[in-house]
Every structure is written in structure tokens, then in C-alpha cells.
């Protein structure tokens, strides 16, 4: 799925369809990229979008953190946490959802 970089045209991020789109600003590796996701996107769908945008390999472990209304980073690791980020985005009528991506070690 194509991404939009600093472009206001609408592009579905691969969600379940039917809902409205959310502007997402992704910060990774010193770059800021803009994409649009469906409000009903799953955690796995967002992971696919992040892999494509940030050019992570299929086996690359990475983290996603969204920035809440108090500018605190909140980790997204499940559908529940993603749903909460989207819910607060809508409640606060934010213009965009800010997500920071980061690589983590593959070794445990």
C-alpha cells in the first residue's frame, strides 16, 4: 500500500474499511512520514503499514509508541492499545495521530 509523505490526499492504510481515515505522522530514524489509516485498522495491519513505511525487514522486531495529550509516549503492542490510541485521537479531535517507530534487538 502506498504511503503519502507530506501530502493531504487520502490513502487507506489497510484497515477493515468502512470507517473514516486517520492522518498518522510517523517519526522514525530522523524522518517524519505521513500516511492515512482506516479507523478500524488492526494492530497487525498497523504493523504491516509500519514495516512498509519504515522499511523494516519481515523479521525485524520494532516498537511503536504514540504520543498522548500530555506528550507522554505510550507503547502500542495490541489491538486494545491501538484502539485506545484511536479513541483518544477522536475524543481530543486531534489533527493527527503521532507514532514513533524504533528498532529493537532480535536477541532475547
From TrEMBL:
Highest taxon in the source lineage: Eukaryota
Mention any Pfam family matching this sequence. Answer: PB1
Output the InterPro entries linked to this UniProt entry. PB1-like, PB1_aPKC, PB1_dom
Q: What is this protein called?
A: PB1 domain-containing protein
What species is this protein from? Answer: Anopheles stephensi (Indo-Pakistan malaria mosquito)
Amino acid at each position: 500500500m502506498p504511503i503519502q509523505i507530506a501530502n493531504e490526499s487520502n490513502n487507506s492504510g489497510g484497515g477493515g474499511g468502512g470507517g473514516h481515515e486517520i492522518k498518522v505522522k510517523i517519526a522514525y530514524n530522523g524522518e517524519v512520514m505521513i500516511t492515512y489509516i482506516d479507523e478500524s485498522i488492526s494492530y497487525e495491519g498497523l504493523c504491516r503499514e509500519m514495516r512498509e513505511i519504515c522499511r523494516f525487514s519481515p523479521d525485524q522486531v520494532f516498537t511503536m509508541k504514540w504520543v498522548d495529550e500530555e506528550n507522554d509516549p505510550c507503547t502500542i503492542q495490541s489491538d486494545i492499545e491501538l484502539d485506545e490510541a484511536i479513541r483518544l485521537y477522536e475524543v481530543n479531535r486531534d489533527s493527527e495521530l503521532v507514532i514513533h517507530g524504533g528498532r529493537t534487538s532480535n536477541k532475547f
